[in-house]
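Thread: sanity check for a docking pose with nicotinamide-adenine-dinucleotide

Original post by kr_44:
Hi all, I'm comparing my docking run against an independent structure prediction. Below are the sequence and the ligand SMILES. Could someone generate the full complex and paste the structure tokens? I mainly care about where the ligand ends up relative to the chain.
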Amino acid sequence: MENKNKKIKILVTGCVGFIGFHVCNFLTNKGFHVIGIDNINTYYDIKLKKDRLKILNLRKNFNFHKVDISDSLKLKKVFKKEKFEYVLHFAAQAGVRFSIYNPKVYFKSNVEGFFNMINLSLEKKIKHFIFASSSSVYGDQKNFPLKENFNTDKPKSFYAATKKSNEVMAYSYSSIYGMKNTALRFFTLYGPFGRPDMAIFKFTDSISKNKKIELFNNGNHLRDFTHIDTFLLLVEKLIMKPGKKKNPFNVFNIGNGKSEKLIKFINLIEENLKKKSKIIKKPLQRGDVIKTHSSVDKIIKYLLLKNKPITKDLKQGIKEYVNWYKSYYSK
Ligand SMILES: NC(=O)c1ccc[n+]([C@@H]2O[C@H](COP(=O)([O-])OP(=O)(O)OC[C@H]3O[C@@H](n4cnc5c(N)ncnc54)[C@H](O)[C@@H]3O)[C@@H](O)[C@H]2O)c1
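Reply from moderator J.T.:
Ran it for you. Here is the predicted complex with nicotinamide-adenine-dinucleotide included:
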């Protein structure tokens, strides 16, 4: 444990979600004092969330508060009691497809909840407010790789619209109040303890149970699959490097910098499960973008990295995921 970090308190919202959990795990291991907030909603199996929390609760330097970020009074109490210096805001209603049928839930958590978070962070003079945006803000583009300065005015889903609105709100708070805000556009993060609503889980689960898998856009989707460890490699450096006074707002892609065909992804899962998939081809779904492929040049330059921050390639990442799936779901 690194002693210098002991005194640094960081709030992580969405702490029992996939990304939040890994970040809390990483930061507590590094010796930071982490305060976690989550409402443990039932969007997906809460056993997974409870198991993640069990792991975090083993740490002396982790404190959990079950709070809904749309409840500003409860949230205010946590800010007052815990007095943290940094905020990593990951709590949100995730998922593109669910937002087509349930936009209100997205408004409550991703717009109202986001406002509460940024506003309290301003009031409490948080040193750096970092939040989860999404690659979905790019919509369908013609040019690749996707760069942070591309136009993001045409979201294809309401989920993407809420993330875009977060970026715009944060930009305004930076420009009005000089608040140091950073938006992270995540590109399909995956890894152990991953979300059951995401493709990697659905495919692994169905193939292993000999069930059919639905392949939208006839399998012609291209995705920038990013291992969670790639983000963990960057997160501490990012926290400790807020924007400068002159330029307090930042936006970065968090990606692998490579686009892979969904079918390759499925083949790797099949190889690791030693089973063949039964595919039902379906047309493109409303809200889905066809291709994502991040440029990671901006973050490399900003954090003065020597190389692309890649930890595991897709082959290694899927092998690790399938092994985790087998051991977790066989219990
Ligand atoms: N995983 C990805 O590939 C990906 C890609 C792009 C963006 N993101 C964004 O990153 C963040 C984390 O994503 P994730 O994959 O870990 O999702 P997740 O659903 O696993 O985690 C989100 C957590 O937030 C909590 N939450 C939701 N609404 C809340 C509320 N109103 N109050 C308190 N807690 C609430 C949920 O209970 C959940 O535990 C989200 O903002 C998501 O939109 C993720």
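The chain has a mean pLDDT of 96. Hope that helps with the comparison, let us know if your pose agrees.
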